[in-house]
């Protein structure tokens, strides 16, 4: 019996959207079911990637303005700028991104249905809209791309007034003088630097031993120094006990204890911003009814083609877990579509870049120095510092570093780690060299525009090559690859 669609996609985030786009290119018919009746685009457009980056853009501009002209005017940004204007800019960006998504879906003849989707058999989805109407649609394939959400704290309540989350912080109507952030995931660190750049005094309460532990140690230390310059206070190994109002001092109080000693602290603040653990939106969508396997946290299990154990059902994006990025979700959704319609069995390159949009940015690809040593590589490191770059001096972005990890004998590039302005873009130069199994010699043999931040690749390569030379290899032999 013929079906209504070739694929029904649950969720319009990056994985669902890219699956729909790729499906349309195969001249197949896709339906996107989206439970958010107001917006398409998921966390990507509405609550995560784009709005936080739009906010960051304004904060960075204000920060740069103050870095260049701050001497002339000693006012804090919150005395000069209004949150209303900062948010207006973000809203304009969101409106344009939202209409871009709609235009793309219309142009590619992708149908959309607003309502909560639930799988009732391997080829059928039930769609329940907010007004209670229910309809069912059938398809050859189903993609589960329902994303993830944050866990809620046990000790206090996210009321979206005193205690905010990544969504409600985007509607705050003033720049707080003080902000306590609970949690230290990537987004927590991004928001900490965004608000610091706006002049807010930020305190971070971290329940773990450390933060951003996956970073190369040296890059992490450089970033820790930047957080100190921002006067961001981080308390590791803490437990928040209570968040409440202090009416006498007209502020919010956060009580927390040090896990090791039990020592109590109280911080006064205007707002609290909470980041929990990411958990999948995989409950009540019919997975158990059709026997789809998940892990113990509910993340959907898939093979390398993004197929679940039920052959007609695929899953992609945050609902399958790691890495939980919009960047990876775009590729996963597209590849799921390719595998449904047998274009070819494509796989994502296993070495993927990571970007943290703090101020300044952090990005990395490939092996850290510690990982390369663990894997028994004969490792040499090349470093460059932003303070030595003409471009960084002109732009007053002197904090940060580049670190190249490469093999001493072959000079093959194994990893790149950057903290500093433009890191999330700059990393792709290193990515291309790693992808094509190139060596740091590439950076010596190519001409880079000047003044640029990418010049740091050349400086770091020379720095590393010098170290190889000092270890006893003749310079001529290094340059001539002998
Ligand atoms: C604050 C923040 C900042 C971020 N910044 C970045 C960044 O800079 N770079 C980056 O790469 N990633 C970033 N991310 C991560 C990124 O947003 C996610 O990885 C990405 O959006 C996940 O995409 P997805 O396709 O899984 O779906 P999502 O974007 O999570 O969307 C899922 C959609 O499914 C819908 N849905 C759920 N259940 C149903 C159902 N039963 N029926 C119908 N629809 C349903 C939801 O309403 C939602 O619209 C950030 C995340 C956050 C929270």
Automatic annotation (TrEMBL):
Binds 1 FAD per subunit. It comes from the Bacteria. Residues 5-333 form the FAD/NAD(P)-binding domain. GO terms for cellular component: cytosol. Keywords: Cytoplasm, FAD, Flavoprotein, NAD, NADP, Nucleotide-binding, Oxidoreductase. Its main location: cytoplasm. Its EC number is 1.6.1.1. InterPro entries: Class-I_Pyr_Nuc-Dis_Oxidored, FAD/NAD-bd_sf, FAD/NAD-binding_dom, FAD/NAD-linked_Rdtase_dimer_sf, Pyr_nuc-diS_OxRdtase, Pyr_nucl-diS_OxRdtase_dimer. FAD binds at residues 53, 117, 318. The keyword Oxidoreductase applies. One of its GO terms (biological process) is 2-oxoglutarate metabolic process. Its cofactor is FAD. Signal peptide: none annotated. Residues 352-459 form the Pyridine nucleotide-disulphide oxidoreductase dimerisation domain. Pfam families: Pyr_redox_2 (PF07992), Pyr_redox_dim (PF02852). It is found in: Cytoplasm. GO terms for molecular function: dihydrolipoyl dehydrogenase (NADH) activity; flavin adenine dinucleotide binding; NAD(P)+ transhydrogenase (Si-specific) activity. Belongs to the class-I pyridine nucleotide-disulfide oxidoreductase family. This is Soluble pyridine nucleotide transhydrogenase. The gene is sthA.
């Amino acid at each position: 019996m013929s079906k209504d669609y070739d694929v029904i996609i649950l969720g319009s985030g990056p994985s669902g959207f890219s699956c729909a786009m790729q499906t349309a290119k195969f001249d197949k018919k896709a339906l996107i079911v989206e439970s958010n009746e107001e917006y398409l685009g998921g966390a990507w457009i509405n609550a995560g990637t784009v709005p936080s980056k739009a906010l960051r853009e304004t904060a960075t501009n204000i920060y740069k303005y103050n870095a260049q002209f701050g001497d002339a005017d000693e006012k804090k940004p919150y005395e000069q700028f209004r949150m209303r204007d900062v948010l207006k800019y973000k809203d304009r960006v969101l409106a344009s991104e939202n209409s871009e998504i709609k235009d793309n879906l219309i142009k590619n003849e992708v149908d959309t249905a607003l309502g909560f989707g639930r799988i009732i058999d391997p080829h059928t989805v039930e769609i329940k809209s907010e007004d209670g109407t229910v309809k069912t649609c059938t398809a050859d394939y189903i993609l589960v791309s329902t994303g993830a959400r944050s866990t809620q704290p046990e000790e206090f309540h996210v009321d979206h007034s005193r205690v905010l989350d990544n969504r409600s912080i985007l509607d705050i109507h003033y720049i707080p003088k003080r902000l306590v952030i609970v949690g230290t995931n990537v987004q927590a660190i991004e928001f900490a630097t965004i608000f610091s750049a706006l002049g807010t005094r930020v305190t971070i309460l971290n329940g773990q031993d450390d933060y951003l532990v996956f970073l190369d140690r040296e890059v992490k230390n450089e970033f820790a120094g930047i957080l100190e310059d921002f006067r961001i206070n981080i308390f590791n190994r803490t437990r928040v006990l209570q968040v409440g109002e202090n009416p006498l001092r007209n502020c919010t109080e956060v009580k927390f204890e040090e896990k090791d000693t039990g020592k109590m602290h109280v911080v006064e603040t205007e707002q609290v911003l909470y980041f929990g653990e990411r958990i999948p939106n995989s409950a009540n969508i019919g997975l158990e009814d059709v026997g789809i396997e998940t892990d113990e946290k509910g993340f959907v299990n898939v093979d390398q083609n993004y197929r679940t154990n039920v052959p007609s059902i695929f899953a992609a994006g945050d609902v399958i877990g790691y890495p939980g990025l919009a960047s990876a979700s775009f590729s996963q959704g597209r590849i799921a579509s390719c595998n449904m319609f047998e274009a070819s069995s494509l796989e994502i390159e296993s070495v993927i870049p990571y970007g943290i949009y703090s101020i300044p940015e952090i990005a990395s690809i490939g092996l850290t120095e510690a990982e390369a040593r663990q894997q028994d590589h004969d490792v040499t490191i090349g470093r460059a510092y932003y303070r030595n770059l003409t471009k960084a001096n002109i732009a007053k972005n002197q904090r940060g570093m580049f670190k190249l990890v490469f093999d001493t004998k072959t000079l093959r590039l194994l990893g790149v780690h950057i903290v500093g302005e433009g890191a999330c873009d700059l990393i792709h130069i290193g990515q291309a060299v790693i992808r094509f199994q190139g060596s740091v010699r590439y950076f010596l043999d190519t001409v880079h525009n000047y003044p640029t931040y990418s010049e740091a690749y050349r400086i770091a390569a020379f720095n590393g090559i010098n170290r190889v030379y000092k270890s006893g290899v003749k310079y001529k032999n290094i340059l001539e690859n002998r």
